[in-house]
Amino acid sequence: MERKTIGFYLKIYLKLIAQDIKSKMSYRADFIISTIGMVCTNIAGFISFWILFQNFPSVNGWTYYEMLFLYGFSLIAITPVQCLFDNNWSLRINVFSGDFIKYCFRPINIFFYYQSEIFDVKGLGQLAFGIGTLAYAWYKLALPVTALMVIKTIVFLITASLIMMAMQNAAAASCFWIENSFYLLDLAFRFKDYAKYPVTIFGPVFRFIFTFLLPIAFIAYYPSLVILRPDEVPVLSWLSPVIGIVFFYISYRIWMYGASRYSGTGS
Amino acid sequence: MEPIIQIKDVTKEFKVLNRREGIKGSLKDLFSRDYKIVRAVDHVTMDVMQGEIVGYLGPNGAGKSTTIKMMTGVLEPTSGEIRAAGIVPYKNRTKNSQKIGVVFGQRTQLWWALPLIESFKLLKDIYQISDEKYRSMLDLYQSLVDIEPLLHKPVRQMSLGQRTLSDILAAFLHDPNIVYLDEPTIGLDVSMKSKIRLLIHALNEQNNTTVILTTHDMGDVDALCRRIVIIDHGKMLYDNDIENLKGLFGSYRTLKIRTDGDMNKKAEGIGAEFPDLSVKVSEDDEWISILVDEGKIKVMEVLHQLEEKEVIRDMQLDEISTEDVIKKIYEGGEA
Amino acid sequence: MRKYLTMARMGIMESLHFRLGMFVLVVGNILYLTLIYYLWKAVYASSGTDVVNGLTFKDTLIYLVLATALYSFMEMYTVWEIGRDIQSGKIVLDLLKPIEYQSYLFWSFSGSLIVHFVCVFLPTFVIVFIVTKGGIPLGMNLIWFLISVVMGVVINFCIDYIVGTICLFTESIWGINIMKQVIVLLLSGVTIPIAFFPEPFRTVVYYLPFQAVYNTPLKILLSATPTLESTGWMLLVQFFWCVVMLLISRIFWLVSLRQITVNGG
How is domain B5-247 classified at the CATH fold level? Predict the structure, then answer.
């Protein structure tokens, strides 16, 4: 049998997503409330941010609008994880109930098949919120709008998303080994809140940890430098697309390894 | 002809955590854990030919599901070899999936919120089924069962029977070499059971699909399987024709009757009349149950003789259960 | 009472079984607290003054660390539990148990509450005390603090219970839960001390029940110059919220139950 092409997977993906959206629409109340919940999360996050800057005009040499830029950037960067990898949250429940076994019998990549089952539409609200914030900060900072800048922004946004996905995949996959993996996943999810601060505020040890071990500094800080401080971009910023891909690949392997260890509890 | 499934001396062991009791035990568990090794499948060997329907029986926890999981590639055997349709399943789960269909327990593999036809369309894409084949398969289904009302119903709104039926259809859709059915008739009513049995039988005949069927229901076995394999405590107890089993241990059925008067006395009378049969009175003194070996005497005959003397108020006929068969095999083995 | 204790005991054993979960929880909190430490350090360093809104860096840090510890011991994901019980229809079985559902939930959570208090809050408390070289005053305030924490737990549970009851109508667990979580986090002063809130936002927040969950116990604990009057007043307000929330949650639940046919029941 021939190897399945990207085209094949793309086609399946679009069909699965279309079906998922269709079925989501059949639970309309849930859909609306979840969207409101998402908006609430974003507004609350923004309010905390705003309160902090009411008291302190700048943090570590970063102005309000620069921080706002980081904030918007991180919001956009976490949208793909929200939209495309939301089924990771149910992984733990599927594994414990034994329902995960149904994903083992399809002739397609199990990671792909599992993730493609859910598309979280409400993440799009977050995307809009993020884009709005980013555009506002961009305008206030009087950054130039050139094709190069936009391309740079997009490339580095993708990079940042990959890192976020990697963290979530790895955290979710932990349920193949440990019982209460919800805490880990929740932790990974909470980290994103701190991704929006410049990594320079941390001491050297933690700067190392957040750069190389738990790469949250790549979610917003390093990529944003390329746009915000073009004169002082460290090598790490330019490396971040590679790092993003590497981390994503590692997390994918972890996930797949966990799935191959899965033995199917129950009956 | 090469067997489609070859299982050679396969063993599967699991590490199971020993949990200690009480709060003190929990605290101990926090710091050290001790595991014991449980052998779920113990040196099992069997070959299955293309087109066979094999009944795979055994009590709960006997190792049936573990064997199936190894055959489908979900689990890797601790030792031994498995080949299914020319593939070592656990080494190439994806490729193996293309060649098998699975209905696992009562867990549907269909998309919960979607109408059946949408699930079918997705499966068509995932398994890369050609338009032609897909259409002929749907036509076949149409000729076997009335699927039209099911096609446009979301799976979550289906009854258990409809869902099982749909799951079976979905498992056969890509014309796999082997289909694994785990307890397909569990929890269904009599008419649905027979409907599903007929369907499995027809699908097996149409495409010469090999079917591995695990079940607790001897009715399934009687209706579908020529060959049965019995496993208990991970060990294979029996692998032969169903006729052979019946020949070895007789085909037992339990006849239960209710008559007027004192049951215990009547039972004694019946026992004297049929010295070969074991006659018991149920605990609530409601029924007299007679274990009949149909190889020796037909149930109808017993009933006929009884009717001449007694007024039979009510009667029931129970099939012998898997558990009883296994008990018989143990007893037979010892004798 | 015995049956409640049995349930609490079961809860303790269950949480202990989650060894790795526990470990992750501790590590996670340490990392999280590190983030808080550096963030606020940078914030104070940039402000140029030592005291902002009456709080020094040390005050703020002690407050936030203890708030986080309190939060991770009090947040029991009750809403998820209720929501899941409702969706799976298991709630029907729970309603048939010879214990009223609200008490049943509370007592089955109480076990893990105790474990989390001992394993998460106490160590944090001791560490903070040692690191800050006695930054937490020790005295009668400890007793008042414990009383206040218990009331905080009850209020928090009632908020969860009210939110969980909404799940009876919407079947939307995630949306409801996330809304509750962010609102409680923000308005109870866990993420940012309420003292930093600008007016009139701050005044509004003081009139809401959320601050009674985390802010009140911490204020009682950390107040440098406590007077019996101020402590008593805070406890009284908290007690008021306790009673009000208990009543609301109970009544809302009973009224809702009457109107709803349970899913899958």
Answer: Rossmann fold (3.40.50)
Is residue A15's pLDDT more than 80? Answer: yes
- Looking at the predicted structure, is the pLDDT value of residue C239 above 90? yes
Predicted confidence band at B135 (pLDDT cuts at 50, 70, 90)? very high
Tokens of A96: 């414990």
CB C152 within 8 A of CB C74: yes
Hey, what CATH topology would domain B252-319 get? Alpha-Beta Plaits (3.30.70)
A and C: number of Cβ contacts within 8 A: 123
* CB-CB under 8 Å, B107 with A101: yes
A-chain CB neighbours of B154 within 8 Å are 23, 26
Task: Say what the pLDDT of residue C3 is.
Answer: 67
Domain count, chain A: 1
Q: How deeply is B264 buried, as exposed, middle or buried, from its count of CB atoms within 10 A (0-12, 13-18, 19+)?
A: exposed
Q: Which is nearest to B169 in space by CA: B190, B191, B148? A: B148
Rounded mean pLDDT, B211-232: 84
pLDDT grade, residue B90 (50/70/90)? confident
Q: With contact defined as beta carbons under 8 Å apart, do B112 and B156 qualify?
A: yes
B69 touches chain A (CB under 8 A): yes
Range of the domain at C29: 2-259
What pTM was computed for the model?
A: 0.75
Q: Which residues of C touch B22 (CB under 8 A)?
A: 13
Rounded Cα distance, A19 and C55, in Å = 54
First-to-last alpha carbon distance for chain C, in angstroms, is 30
Q: What is the pLDDT of residues B26-43, one digit of tens each?
A: 666 656 666 778 888 888
In a domain, A267, yes or no: no
Q: Which of A51, A64, A118 to mutate to test the interface with C (most CBs of C within 10 A)?
A: A51
Banded pLDDT at A139 (limits 50, 70, 90): very high
**Cβ of C265 under 8 Å from any chain A Cβ?**
no
Q: What is the rounded distance in angstroms from the CA atom of residue A73 to the CA atom of residue A106?
A: 37
Looking at per-residue pLDDT, the higher value among C214 and C257 belongs to C214
Any A CB within 8 A of B177 CB: no
Which site among A103, A104, A176, A261 would you substitute to test the B interface, given the most B Cβ atoms closer than 10 Å to its Cβ?
Answer: A104
The closest CB to that of A267, out of B65, B93, B101, belongs to B65
Asked whether residue A133 is domain-assigned, the answer is yes
Q: Chain A contact for C16, CB < 8 A?
A: no
| pLDDT over 90, % of chain C | 6
Please compute the mean of the pLDDT values over residues A106-125 and round it to a whole number: 86
Q: Report B:25-84 residues touching C (Cβ under 8 A).
A: 26-27, 29-30
B10 C-beta neighbours (distance < 10 Å), count: 21
- State the distance between the two ends of chain B, measured CA to CA, in whole angstroms: 37
- Asked if residue A1 is part of any domain, the answer here is no
Chains that touch B (3 or more CB pairs under 8 A): A, C
User: What is the pLDDT, as a whole number, of residue A266?
Assistant: 38
User: Residue C164 and residue C176: Cα distance in Å, rounded?
Assistant: 8
Q: CB contact, 8 Å: B95 with chain A?
A: yes
Q: Does C50 touch chain A (CB under 8 A)?
A: no
Number of domain units in chain C: 1
